[in-house]
Hints:
This protein is mainly beta. Helix content is 4%, strand content 58%. The chain has a twelve-stranded antiparallel β-barrel with strand order 1-2-3-5-6-9-10-11-12-13-14-16. The protein has a two-stranded antiparallel sheet with strand order 7-8. The longest helix is centred in the middle third of the chain and has 9 residues, at 95-103.
Amino acid sequence: MRRIGILIAFTLFSSQVFGQAWSRLQGHGYVQAGYSIITYNALYAGEIDDLDQIPLPREVMDQTIPVYGEYGITDKLTLSLELPVKWVKTGDPNQEFFDALQDSSLGLIAFPDEGELLGLGNIRLSGIYNIWKKDYWSATAKLRIEANTGAYDDKSGLRTGFDAWTFSPFLAIGHGRSLWFAAAETGINFRTNNYSTQSYTTAYGGINFLKNIFLFMGGLELQRNIGGDGTHDDGNSVFTGLYIDNIEFLAWYFKLSANPWKNFRIWLATGRGFGNLVAKAPSFSVTLSKEW
């Protein structure tokens, strides 16, 4: 059986208002802070079109306070920074896990203690460069670097980030009008410390309505291993599924935002992933953003 893992709630929600097929104009920027949560006691596993379910020994709660900002250095170059603060915890034993253990031939196994962990996730720094713009079309190239800034507690199996540095080149293209937009992005995640290398593709779009007071967005994200599985030692995190190796998923998300004050927006979002090593639960978030 392949090792247990999870699609983290934070990765389900893009940090940007319109994705990154567009760069900011020089001197213009965007900032946001929010809260997201996902609670689960089982994981999906297997192929995306043939899923099994794996119960976990304890319920896991993953909460994130993501702080994000981007700023236009020039009309073509934008820099962005993400600082995710994580609070992860495990709760009471999950009876479904022990029932499944009795029905298997594995016998008794040790599993992690109940616990909680507060710390930074993987800090992300990105450069977005506009390589083409014509009429209502725009294309950008992006390089994202994720620092190995996550914390780990072996007794509980809790993690707040991947135990690796990540280098991710991306290409994105988008088409936008005053009332709607659509875009797509594709790239590769190269991680150190023997993690698997993964392709990543997303397509998303949105529409403004009621005189631009409300914005509705939706999208799909696909991540697959390429070049074989990774061999990273996840330790006791196999029992919590937090930030471990060989995650593959197809995920959807929806966002609704309102513009109650000039340049400010309130966002509500939900999403869910399906695939190998993905939490069997939806995630939810609320965010406040400002742009200028």
